[in-house]
């Protein structure tokens, strides 16, 4: 009989990366009942501890909130590359201690077949933790929550910052030390994946996406948002729209953190105060404005026909400048509203631009679910990874 295996997952401390990590964990334990996963969750200094309320999470998946680590930086707001690097380095001791505790608990187990520590699955931004995995003499695997091209890290202007560039190059070089790379993408989306099998300098690459929880929880089904969606015709709702578009819309509108401070977005106490006068009343028959939204569940609802995105990769499965270019110009899966902007620019997107984009996007349709079913490319790729563990 196959001996049970324990994998340690370390996601980047960003909710989008944690969500994708949970989804790949769920798929893995669903495919192999001898596999157990412990997710070590780092905490951002301004964020709340991660709490899991998803009843569909398997008892084979365990979450450990690591103690908060001090940033120990002179910067009021560290640059994104600096913040992640400092957090990861300062969490190494906590991660090491958590794995020691995990192994100790396994040794004390009365089970005749105790799970062996089979390896670490590290977020790309946490790849320097390969040193910790080496201490336990187990292999490391890397997980890319975005696409293979990883365009989050190569936006225009990124390489103008020497510190961020150094962090990216260091992480990339460390990838040569790992045993395999899992990517939240699928073969039909990125055909370059076919050619990686012929490069013996690159670890095996496993496209396992798109990783989305498309099953609405009972809590979602009974919510005001989903009661409204249920009343709409199929393929009729846009994620964000303007009044004059004439399209039905669901708009998730949240308050950004104060300028110059690190904080998570929050909901507005009074939407009327920040919207045009009378907007909510005039659009009530066709639209709904909300705060936080269960994004993946909404996008999976049959009433949803498209969405307006800032282009983060989880929004595309759940992309920023280069991601948007790939979707619009290369794949034809999206419509451009505005892509020729730069960080801190004063570009303003007009109502006419948004209205035009909304009308065009409703004519597009795509389906990547076939990659996940038995016999699909991502389903088969996940099976190859499980066989390697």
UniProtKB/TrEMBL annotation:
InterPro entries: UDP-glycosyltransf_plant, UDP_glucos_trans. One of its GO terms (molecular function) is UDP-glucosyltransferase activity. Keywords: Glycosyltransferase, Transferase. Belongs to the UDP-glycosyltransferase family. This is UDP-glucose flavonoid 3-O-glucosyltransferase 3.
């Amino acid at each position: 009989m196959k001996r049970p295996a324990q994998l340690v997952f370390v996601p980047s401390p960003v909710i989008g990366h944690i969500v994708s990590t949970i989804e790949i964990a769920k798929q893995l334990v669903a495919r192999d009942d001898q596999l157990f996963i412990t997710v070590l969750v780092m905490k951002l200094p301004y964020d709340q501890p991660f709490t899991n309320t998803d009843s569909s999470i398997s008892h084979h998946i365990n979450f450990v909130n690591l103690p908060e680590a001090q940033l120990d930086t002179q910067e009021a707001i560290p640059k994104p590359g600096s913040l992640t690097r400092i957090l990861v380095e300062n969490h190494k001791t906590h991660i090491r201690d958590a794995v020691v505790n995990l192994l100790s608990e396994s040794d004390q187990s009365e089970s005749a077949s105790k799970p062996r520590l089979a390896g670490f699955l590290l977020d790309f931004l946490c790849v320097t933790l390969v040193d910790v995995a080496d201490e336990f003499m187990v292999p490391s695997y890397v997980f890319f929550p975005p696409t293979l091209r990883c365009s989050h890290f190569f936006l225009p202007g990124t390489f103008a910052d020497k510190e961020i560039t150094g962090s990216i190059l260091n992480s990339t070089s460390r990838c040569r030390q790992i045993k395999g790379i899992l990517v939240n993408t699928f073969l039909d989306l990125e055909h370059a994946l076919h050619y990686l099998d012929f490069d013996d300098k690159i670890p095996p690459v496993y496209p396992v996406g798109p990783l989305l929880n498309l099953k609405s929880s009972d809590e979602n089904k009974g919510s005001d948002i989903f009661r409204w969606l249920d009343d709409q015709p199929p393929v009729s709702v846009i994620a964000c729209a303007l009044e004059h578009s004439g399209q039905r819309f669901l708009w998730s509108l949240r308050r950004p953190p104060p300028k110059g401070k690190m904080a998570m977005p929050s909901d507005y106490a009074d939407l009327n105060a920040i919207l045009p006068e009378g907007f909510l009343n005039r659009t009530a028959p066709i639209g709904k404005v909300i705060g936080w939204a269960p994004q993946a569940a909404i996008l999976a609802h049959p009433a949803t026909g498209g969405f307006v995105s800032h282009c983060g990769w989880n929004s595309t499965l759940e992309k920023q400048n280069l991601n948007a270019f790939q979707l619009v110009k290369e794949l034809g899966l999206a419509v451009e509203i505005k892509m020729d902007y730069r960080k801190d620019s004063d570009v303003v997107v007009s109502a006419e631009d948004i209205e035009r984009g909304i009308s065009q996007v409703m004519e597009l349709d795509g389906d990547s679910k076939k990659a996940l079913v038995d016999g699909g490319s991502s389903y088969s790729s996940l099976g190859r990874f499980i066989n390697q563990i």
